[in-house]
Amino acid sequence: MSQYDDPADQRVSVAQLNLELRHAQLELLSAHCAIHQLRLHYSTDDLARFGQRDVLRKSADAANALSKFYASIEERCPQPTPRPPESFPKATNEQVAQAVEWLSSYLRAQCQHYQPSSRPLDPQPKSIMAPYFPAALLDRIRIVELEGARVAIPDFFAQVRVQGFNNLPDIPHMESLTFLDVVAFNEKLSERALFHALVHAVQIEVLGLERYAELWVRGFLKTHAHFTVPLEVHAFSMASRFLRPTLEKFSVEDEVLRWAADRRY
Questions:
Q1: 42 lies in which domain range?
Q2: I need a labelling partner for 108 at 20 to 30 A (CA). Which of 77, 115, 117, 189 fits?
C-alpha cells in the first residue's frame, strides 16, 4: 500500500509536497535573480574568461541537473492547450503614469483593508530580524496571516491585460505581500517571506511610495517579469543572504540606500 492510498494521508502528503515545491520554486527564483544580475553586468565571454573554473563548472553541472530533473517531470505532465506567444507592447507615458497611480493606490487601499485585522510582530521573529532592519520599522510593522485565504487579484490587472500587458505577478500564490507597513501572508509567516517583505517595506520608506511604484512599473516594463524587476531582485538576493548558514549580518537600509544612490533600481 503506497503512502497515497489512504485519502486522508493523500491530502496531507500532497499538501506537504506542494509546500516544498513552492519553497524550491522560491530558491530557483532567487538563483534566477542572481543570474539575471550577472547577465546585466558581464558578458558570457567575460564570465568564461575570468570566472573561477571550479565555480563555473559546479554551477553549470547544477543547472544541467535541474534542467534534466524538471524536464523529466514535464514529460509526465498532461500537456496544456498551446497558447499563442505573448506579446509585450511598448507602454506610452500616459499608460506608465496610470499604472503607477493604480499600483500606489492599491498598496494604500490594501494597507487600510488589512490594518484592522493585523497584529504586531511577535518577539521571536522580531528578534531574528533585528540585526538587519531598523528598530523603528520592526516596531511599526504589522502582519496578517491568511492561512490559506488569498490576497485578491487587483481589479486593475484586468485593465492592464486588456492593454496587452501579460505575465503579471501571481498575487494569490505569492508567499507575502507588503502593503506599506502591513505585511499579508497568503499562508503562514515564514522567516524567508518575512525578510523579503520587510525589504520592500524599507524600499518604500527610503524611496517613497510613488517613486517605489514608478520604479516597479518601469522595471516590469523593461524586464517583462516581476521577479526580474530590480526591486524584487534585490529583495530576493538579500533574503538568500539572510538564509545562508553564516554569521554575516548586514543592514538592509544601507543596502537599499546604496542601490538607490547607484540608480540600480
A1: 7-76
A2: 189
